Batch of 3 targets.
Target 1
Amino acid sequence: MAQRLKYLGLTLLVIVIAVLGFFQMFERAQGKIESSEVIMFAIGAVLFLVTWGIMSKFQPNANQTIMCCMELLAVLGILMIARLDITANTTVATRQLIWLCVALVCANLFFAYMHDYRVLRRFSYVSMVIGLVLLLSPMVPGLGREIGGARIWIGIGPYQLQPGEFAKLFLAFFFASYLFNHRDQLAVGGKKVLGLQLPRIKDLGPIIIVWITSMGVLVLQRDLGTSLMFFAMFVAMLYIATGRTSWLIIGFLAFIIGCVAAVHLFPHVSYRVEAWLHPFDKAVYDRYPGGSSQLVTGLFGLAAGGLFGTGLGAGSPNLTPLANSDFIYASLGEELGLVGVLAILLIYMLLVTAGLLAAMKIKDGFGKLLAAGLAFSMAFQVFTVVGGITLVIPLTGLTMPYMAAGGSSLVANTVLAALLVIISNQANTKTETDMSETFRQQAIAMLRHRQQLNALHEESASSSSSSSSHGRHSAHGAHSAHNVHVVNNASSVVNAGNAHGAHNAANTSIPRASDDVPTTVSKLPPTASFEEVSHE
């Protein structure tokens, strides 16, 4: 109960921050608050409380900090979008608030009906097909639309959708399932080069396929950000699955080669690199398309904010192009200052950290990969956006999760946060199945230890001399008694584990953790050590 009240307090804190922020901004910018806006804010606050109630009922052990951070970021984003609407006389904030309500409804459906995230593993190849179809759908003639030089949108009448945001989720499901099923083969090392153990040639197939797909997105859709994010997510999950640094080095080198080739082959990529390297050069600044004027304007906006910002409604963020989407971080920096944007980055860090903690706690390998991949994709997207605006890296075209204007991005990233909440709930739930699996692992370790002792005894017996046969036989008797003791202990542990397993099978329909234990444990050689078995 204390935990639920703590999360209720965090939810109420988000609502209070939203009310104070909107009141200050509207009073300063236009001197009044419209009744329609008050109604929309009230609906959003009610949905926040409903979300807390549904999580408390259906995901009682979940880390609700994830959703609280997501809601606070969405509120700050809508606050800045509404500020820009006043200057531009538009209604983007109202649409964004509607999309937030839709996203929360989707998240609540996941909380209520997805009790076990492992069901996603059954549809790994279906997820791959859906992800690739969504990723390549903007290339369909008559359906795809090109906006800002990138063909990453599909349009139905007056409405537009960015399918790549949803493709990110489906491909994460496939990556987690594929890498979980094949992690043993991918972890096998090949030859050593300069002290680094490289993978086998035949295991390079998956990373080559994903690299080709990423380069295809870069070439066909002219979208550097999406291709970079997908490839980085796959390489990160591959490293988590295998623990081999060589995969990171190979992935980094592969993408560097692809980017260098793209800079020389495609003008839109070379323009972004030149704008990054020489943003204040007059020829680069005035060039259209591909000039650095947008980037420089955003930098001056950040500089105008100083340490504490100009205050909500007192700056001029509307001077920056795409101030409510690609450059919303610069808009927030102008009115909230360096302290404000650092606080925003801290909220993102809390969200990502909560996701990584869930990945560390969950015992299921598929859940570890999925939670870590989703959290990493969130962190990587924030890094590329902030790094592009602050001249750390070239602009990629990605947008800030939860904050930038756009319904597809908001809904997809809210579902991402909901999945992290569901995984954290199962990670924090203690079940008797976990104890049963512990007994089974102990039994396997004891049996392997017995095999070691038998092998040592046989080797010793074969090399013994006739002169010491009496002493050897005495040692053999003591050794055999020790073996009988080990076997008896292992048998009792197995029986206890089986009893727990039968009890769990009769009382729950959730698959046992043993269903996800690597099959390679049973294939260990007789000389496998206790530490190796425990690691598996």
Target 2
Amino acid sequence: MIRRLYIVTVSAVTIGVILACWLFRVFYQLETTQIQRDFERDVDKQAQALSLYIEEKFAALHHLKLIVEYQGMPDREAFSGQAQSLLTRYPSLQSVGWVPWIPAAQRYAHESAQAFLMPEYRIVERVASDELVNATERADYFPLQHIASRTDNLTALGYDFGANAVQRRMLNQARDTGQWQLSERIERDVLPNTQGTVQVVVPVYDQVQPVTRMERRQALRGFIVGYWHIDEMIAPWFPLSSFAQMHLGIADLQANEATSLLFGLGDRTASSRTASSSTQFYLSALALEGEFVLLPEPSERVSRTVLAKGGREWVMEATPTAHYFEQRRTAYSFYVFGAILFGFVGLSGYGWRVMQRHVLQWNQLGENNQQLAEQNKSLVRLTRMDTLLGVANRRFFDETLHKEFSRAYREDKPLALLLIDIDHFKAFNDTYGHQAGDRCLKLVAGELERVLRRPADMLARVGGEEFGVILPNTNNGEVVARQCRTAVERLGIAHGGSFSGDLVTVSIGVISLENVAHHTTDSIYALADEALYEAKSSGRNCIRAKKVTVPRAANTLTCIG
């Protein structure tokens, strides 16, 4: 009887706890889902409004474009008056300029005409030393002829936007599409006082709305150029929104990592909520503060596109803070949990002990899984490493060569491959024994590893006394080959059985490709092996290097004695 009562009591406690927890979880998840849906609807509304707000700002230059196309190009004073009205209306607009299209044949006439208004005017470009010098000869020019700015930007007059490859691509895209184009966030002043802005270029034609690309190219007159301060443009919009309890970031997906984050807004009280990984875009800058927090809970993040024009795609990412959920969550789920659990409070201690036992078992299972994972990693390392020398083996070499080849093909980067063979190594083993041969291999492998300083460079043993070296993003592997050959010779390992000297030396075959197009991993390896064969046939202790340029030219050979 006592045993039966004990069983019934334990069963009742277990059922009560399970039921209380299950109902709590159900109500809690339902409420959380509803709050998340409300949050997504809020973000959708704000994203749509922000998208219209941003496009309205960037389209402001269209008014000036219509004036030029219908009325003709105004003089400097008239242009300045029209531009100043835009600057007054839009505080975040830093400067507006007129950039005409000047063919090379008209450069002198253009500079002479502008010299009457500004004697020091000339078409210039910015060089690596950050100085402005006379523009080099090109087929055409895009000089800044007029500018209206909140600061003194007269020194920028004559700057050729076509001298910069990125800006020229943007101008060409605007010309061919007839639509305004947008740059990434400018972190280095192209013109004075443009840091932290984005550049908008609007094409202007001699005729209104040319239809085809050829018509647009023939009718091009020039461009209206505007610089918008992104923080000053977006920041005034947010105090009117409901984002006080959210982390928010706006990023440019087409920009590089350094300039992708355009704007950030966050709740200072939530800055303690951080994630352990920052490999993805979870960052948000506190508005106008320059502080950063990591957006937690990726499942709660909502991403919406706010701009998909002008060659850019801006995405807004919003994440609710803990305070956002706390304000909208009710205590109903807690009431359900407490009401059910209250009837079993006398037996809760036993239930706690059971739970503790489960936790201990779970922890033990986790430790066992971690040990198994570490053992698996060790096995993987063993399958990839040469057990004698501690460097990569042939299998891992082939995998890495395929991976780096694919990367070089995808990113249009150079690639170099070295095949290194120890000269007369069989004679070394016959003379000094296999143990001495193993020590020699270890010394050579260690010295070659010290030569390779970049993390991406790889040394592998691909044969008995043959090594392979993969050099990603390298267009002249001969330099590394010389270092390898000198390093091995500097070891000073005596070799009485060598026919090419008294010391252990190496022969090296090198293939350097500026572009891996029209090649395969097998063909690259074959070219390097062919170069190694030529080095060995030429008396050993030398280098044979082949270089494939773009466009593919004849192979060049270099012998280092």
Target 3
Amino acid sequence: MKTLVIAEKPDMGRNIASAIEPKAVNKRSYLEGDSFIITWAIGHLIELAEPDQYDEKYKKWSIDHLPIIPQTFKLVPNPRTYDQLKVIAELAKKCDKLVNACDAGREGQHIFSLIQRHLGLRQPVKRLWISDLTSETIRQGFASMKDGSEYENLTRAARSRSEADWLIGMNGSRAFTTKHNVLLSVGRVQTPVLALIYDRQKQIEAFSSLKFFELEGHFVQGDTTYKGMWQGDRMTDKEKVEALAAKVKGKPARIASYEVKDTKEYPYKLYDLTLLQREANGKLGFSAKKTLDTAQALYEKHKVISYPRTNSNYVTEQNIPEMHKALSALQGTAYQELVQGANRNLVHKNNKAICNPAKVEDHHAILPTNRKASGLSPDEQKLYDMIVRRFLSQFYPPAEYKMHTVLTEVEQEQFKTTVKELLQLGWKVIYADQKKDKPKSSKGKDKDKEADEEEEEVEVAEPFSVDPAAGVQCSDAIVKEKDTQPPKHFTEGTLLKAMESAGKQIEDEELRDAMKDSGLGTPATRAATIERLKKVGYIDMQGKKIALTQKGRTAVELIRGAGVELLTSPEMTGQWERRLNEIARGAASDEQFMHNVKRFAALIVDKVRVQARAAKTAFEGETPAASSGKRGAAKTGGTVSRQTSAAAAPKKAASAKQTQPDGAPTVLATCPRPGCGGSLFMGRKGYGCSHYKEGCKFVIWKESFGRSLTDTQVQALVQKGKTAKLKLVLADGTPVDGRIVLKDPATGELGTETD
């Protein structure tokens, strides 16, 4: 008997057939060769049954019928693709072995598993696990297939994800919809993503802009001219800064210090899907869905890139020879000149910026294949170009600079100058014909400090130097009027970044890598989540900006108001995603996970049942324009320290503070860290210390143990070490009665205390 190969989509099936059965006969819905019959699903052929297929009473939505928690989930065929399911069933009767050739990932595993379960297929299964659809890779994949049983944990994780989403979505949506008489969609991933957008919107609305002034000094030493920014507290009094300008203008100056150091900038990391979506949104204006669809076409239809739905920016040792073949394949193309300039010796297994097997799980970074691209649409060509250039940059040396830092003193006032002198363009030659990218931020750099430094730093291609021993003249002093800026509205690109790290504002790339296992959704599903929020009317697009609708705003407020803050918690949902990944690795129990999800679904219903109904008008109203926050007038005197200004909130507590009428942060308590002496104030996501710049790491996250902490509760934690008794939800989803306790006064780490 023959072996039945089940691919995920028709194109994939045909590619597989051309590689392993080139003489296979095309039977329209399958291809038959001497040893293999190759057929395909068309996406999901099998779905979880709707509630009314468990009981007729569920046809009518009623909160009295909730929660709906099936003991065993029923499977039903998708009516639109039922004919293809029948084809698979008939073909399976003629075969004694199966090959799961669906996408190599959690969702592909689920698609095959559902077909297998619904049709009751008992044949032994082999798993094809490949990262591109070139004939060579397919043949290698068939030669090294593993038993399907080795992927049983991945199947459990996929099933748990599907059933958990059904339980939360079905019960949450029906509960809120029937209570408030408006169709309200609730989901395990979509709701915390909506909450991220809501919190950013509130942060922007609460922002009050502060006018301030900067002083730019112009200096001359011989034939050299340069500019420097005055160093001191941020000034809000125009008269004082103008007096300072008059004081230094035309006066002799001296160089107080001059430092020169060599620095290198290495190529950016290879693309994973989320990074590709983010950059394509920024550079090309593509939505996350458009980038995914275009990348999928480059992979399936044109076979010019590797599997795009990856969460890794690295490759394994086995991929290094493939990278060299792909480089050779780019000869004779539009990239010929860049290929000639490439240094093959830079791409090897010991280059950990490229080859890091520990950071590759299912799939390596997105790479071009050794197939020459032709017949691409304009959009496909643009995305392919991004992938190829990022790939080529790995074969080039770092860009090299000399960093000159000059402190010039005039009339006892100091001005700082930073000049970045280009020595070698290195990998940046690949982007020399494109619009210059903004420099990436350094690890852990404060956003306001970063903005200031970008303004102060000047990049030059010609040699620069000053003589520390020679005199300098301050030829001019220019007063610049500026405003502190509110946080920016999310774009799809910046929202994807927030989803990847479960909402935490993480700039450090290593920390972001560590968060990848506990982000919101997966690289393959994030685009669909954003599209879902648009479809249900929670967000609108205003150009590239994401605008929250009145319906979206009210939905978040109702969910939080019902006492199920966990549903809106990015961190908690990130922990669920981590648990699913642990199930896939065999490190956690799917039964325990589902037990906790069922309890949480019942908790949602109980909370909503006692909630007051919202007014119909709460969901109505025009979506406001995605504009900036309120403008505030400059204060008439004094200075505002850069360290504590309204635009320089602690990183961990985010940047929008609860403020008093005069714009100053509301101080809640003295920081409990021994020897600190700072003050705690509320940011958008937590309570941080005013001495964070001096190294205080104390922060209490607002969303903790299923609750959104109040100012009073935070004061109790700081002053008494614990809250009053509360209803809490542990990280694994278990609801408990207990107190939140301050475990570590040095960091703000919290724990729980139960009776």
